[in-house]
Each structure stands twice: as C-alpha cells, then as structure tokens.
Amino acid sequence: SYDKANRTAGGSFRGPGLDTGLDWLAQIKSRTGLPIITDIHEPRQASLAAEVADVLQIPAFLCRQTDLLLAAARTERVVNIKKGQFMAPWDMRGPVEKIRSEGFKRIWLTERGSMFGYNNLVVDFRSLVIMKQFGCPVIFDATHSVQLPGGQGTSSGGQREFVPPLA
Question: What is the pLDDT of residues 83-131, one digit of tens each?
C-alpha cells in the first residue's frame, strides 16, 4: 500500500504516499506483469488507484464506510473487503450488499482474525464458511490473524510461529 494510515504510533512510517506509491506500483506491474492489489482509504482515491491496481482493498477498519465501498465498486475493479476485527462474520453481509446495490458482483472477502480481549487476535474458522455463504470468494490472511495489535507499545507484534499451521 502507498499509505498505511492506521499505524499504532504517530511517528511510524506510513508509506511513500499516494502519488509516489501508485507510480511505484505501476512500475512493478510494468516490469513483472503481475496483478496489483492496494488499499484505498478515501473515496477520491478509488479512481486513481484503479488506473494501476487490478484489485482495490478496503482496510478492515474502514469496511463499513459506504462511500468508500461504493467508490471502489464504481471503478469496476475487483473489491476485496477485509473483515474488521470488530465485525462478526455474518455482519459482512452489509458491506457486500452495499456494493451489490450498485450492480457490482466482483467482491472478495478477507478474514484476518477477531479481537479477543486487548492486543490479541484469534481466528474463528467458522467465519470462512459463514462469509462464503454470501457468494464471494473468501481469503484467509494467516499472517494478520496472528497479530498482536499494539502489543509492543508503539507498534504491533505477532506470533509468526503460528502462521504455517494456520495456513
């Protein structure tokens, strides 16, 4: 992503910014021929990112933002909605239906864990089955699912040893 806007500490590196980041992504796409996926954070960014990206991701903490979801859908790029750590899997039907209200159907959902107390994410694998019932491909992000949000005070940590068995 060109901007990681929800860092734990205000002084943490966020990325190169919209213009430079999209330029870098365009160069990578040109050199490798690989498809590009990137987060967008504001409705105005959707059309700009869609000039480069094949898939627009909606960050977990923004997964219910109607204007952002609709702007992404209007680009006609695939829209990947990351399930918020605060969301029940069945509540992801709402964001999906918002996008479908525009007649758009190329929607993916990503499970990334749910908050379990403070500074801890856990995975309820039933969520994969529940979200699949909405008729969208479901992705499991094993690396994010073992994150310890804010667990290092000024940054997030994680338990990488659990990634292989979960994946």
Answer: 999 999 999 999 999 999 989 999 999 999 999 988 888 999 999 999 9
The b-or-e profile of 50-77 (16+ CB within 10 A means b, else e) is bebbebbbbbbebbbbeebbbbbbbbeb
DSSP 3-state assignment of 139? strand
pLDDT of residue 8: 62
Residue 60 lies in a domain: yes
In-domain check, residue 4: no
Number of structural domains the chain divides into: 1
Q: Residue 157 falls within a domain, yes or no?
A: yes
64 is in which domain, residue-wise? Answer: 37-166
* Cβ neighbours around 29 below 10 Å, total: 15
Query: Confidence class of residue 152 from pLDDT cuts 50, 70 and 90?
Result: low
Residue 165 in tokens:
């068995």
CATH code assigned at 54: 3.20.20.70
- Determine the 3-state secondary structure of 17 from DSSP: coil
